[in-house]
Amino acid sequence: MSKAGALDLASGVGGKIEKKDVLNAVEKYENYHVFHGGEEEDRKANYTDMVNKYYDLVTSFYEFGWGESFHFAHRWKGESLRESIKRHEHFLALQLGLKPGQKVLDVGCGIGGPLREIARFSSTSVTGLNNNEYQISRGKELNRIAGVDKTCEFVKADFMKMPFGDNVFDAVYAIEATCHAPDALGCYKEIYRVLKPGQHFAAYEWCMTDAFDRNNPEHQRIKAEIEIGDGLPDIRSTGQCLEALKHAGFEIIWDKDLTIGAPVPWYLPLDASRFSLTSFRLTAVGRFFTRNMVKALESIGIAPKGSQRVQSFLEQAAVGLVDGGKKEIFTPMYFFLARKPL
Ligand SMILES: C[S@@+](CC[C@H](N)C(=O)[O-])C[C@H]1O[C@@H](n2cnc3c(N)ncnc32)[C@H](O)[C@@H]1O
After folding, report:
1. In the chain, domain spans
2. Of the candidates 117, 111, 70, the residue with the CA atom closest to the CA atom of residue 89
3. Which CATH class for the 81-262+326-340 domain?
4. pLDDT by residue for the chain (342 residues), tens digit each?
5. Given ligand 1 and candidates 130, 152, 160, 333, which is best to mutate, with the most ligand atoms within 8 Å of its CB?
6. Is 190 in the pocket of ligand 1 (CB under 6 A)?
């Protein structure tokens, strides 16, 4: 079972960081970002430390509010958030043409929500690559409970330097993860190297769209809010991702920003102006309760000091994401299907 209770949330803040060091980690994390005088070059040079601190701090909040899969989804009217998340994962499996028994790599796998779903949907063996130890420990427990621990595994490593031989996977996918790479080309080249020739790589990338104007201060504010709230060094444009894929050697089969024309806006669950019973914890009222609960649990010492600050930068991220979505300058689902030539 996913750890979705209030006490799980509180005690999980900080992940593998010692509880007494959580506040210090929050300060160090915040200092990487623009609002606190941080520089893009510094974020890129120290991406492992920045991203790992971020996921140690936020993973229990993600599980509490969102579930086991840490991504947005294309959504139809009448579909619940949970249903849309699963369908978004199945879509990727279908695009990759997964066949039973294949060996698949999930790049930046979180606690393995998509990995378990895709492995069961396609009867494949999925390896989850992740550089965060806390998430891997959660993922292993959830794999055991789901009964996929014999066929799926986790590997702790950096996706910029993968510990795999050349040409070993039948398919590779990445869901809202390679946006953390300090350099897209370096990351895509590693994916290209480990993928068998003739096989496919599919991903949902976080990108700034063509509507983003870097000379517009409002657009820059939104971009910086998303970066601090989501542990990102610098959000790339869709064009930059496409170029990096081609430079890495991939043929592009097709690509599309799936937010365009989507029946339900992807950012709806985070929009403070709407109410939902099925994803109550994400609504303004739900977030008000969580904020006060975290405050109370921090004051009696169950949640480590610094927990409220984490809640606060996550709320800042939600504002940035909703604004970026409404202005159509940001997408969390720039989809592409690419092939390594024979
Ligand atoms: C937004 S989460 C998405 C997780 C998962 N794909 C999902 O949809 O549930 C991004 C993931 O990328 C992982 N990640 C970020 N940078 C990484 C790196 N350099 N190497 C390996 N994993 C990384 C994080 O630890 C996190 O698990």
Report:
1. 81-262+326-340
2. 117
3. alpha beta
4. 555 677 777 778 888 888 888 888 888 888 887 777 788 888 888 888 888 888 888 898 889 888 999 999 999 999 999 999 999 999 999 999 999 999 999 999 999 999 999 999 999 999 999 999 999 999 999 999 999 999 999 999 999 999 999 999 999 999 999 999 999 999 999 999 999 999 999 999 999 999 999 999 999 999 999 998 888 989 999 999 999 999 999 999 999 999 999 999 999 988 877 756 556 666 777 777 777 777 778 888 788 788 888 888 888 888 999 999 999 999 999 999 999 999
5. 130
6. no
Mutational pocket test of ligand 1: of 44, 159, 172, 189, the residue with most ligand atoms within 8 Å of the beta carbon:
159
Residue linked to tokens 């089969």: 253
Q: Rounded to two decimals, what is the model's pTM? A: 0.93
How far apart, in whole angstroms, are the C-alpha atoms of residue 172 and residue 159?
12
Tell me the C-alpha distance between 7 and 141, whole Å.
Answer: 18
Q: Decide: 41 and 291 in contact? Cβ < 8 Å.
A: no
Strand ranges (DSSP E) for the chain?
103-107, 125-130, 153-156, 169-175, 195-208, 251-257, 330-339
SS3 content of the chain, % helix, strand, coil (to 5): 50, 15, 35
